[in-house]
Amino acid sequence: MGYVCPVCTAGVADGRQLADHLAVTASLGREDHRAWLETHAPEWADSTRDELAERVTEYATEMDLPVSDDAPEGPASRPQGPRLEDALAQQTTGPGRGDLTADAESVLEEAMELTREMDATDSDDSSEETNER
């Protein structure tokens, strides 16, 4: 089951991707996403990906993902609706588009580092769960 972003209607495959979409888009200067997060998940900046996903999926519309008979993995992971990249490209007149300022580049680098750390933590948690069994 996928979700539709409650701000821009971009489609994502799951709650974690919705959390990532909202947080990254807000961090990149999209005030509409930031304002939505401040209203619906005020602790968003200090939340883990899973915590934020649990919070934001309450407000998102669920959507069925297309199923591909050809895919060996089962259902296709790409949801119907606009891709994040396409939705952002349509917003070319808004703030946060074009050449990166030094501040924006710094924020983006920090976001990428935090994402790597969260992924490492998620992997560690998965390993611990496996070892406990």
Main sheet record: 3 strands, antiparallel
Helix content: 40-55%
Strand tally is: 3
Total number of domains: 2
Structure write-up:
With 133 residues, the chain is mainly alpha-helical. The chain folds into two domains: 97 residues, no CATH class; 35 residues. Helices cover 51% and strands 6% of the residues. The chain contains five helices and three strands, in the order E-E-H-H-H-E-H-H. Strands 2-1-3 form a three-stranded antiparallel sheet. Strand 1 and strand 2 form a beta hairpin. Helix 1 crosses helix 2.
Give the secondary structure arrangement, pairings included.
Layout: E1 2-4, E2 11-12, H1 15-27, H2 31-40, H3 49-56, E3 61-63, H4 84-89, H5 102-132
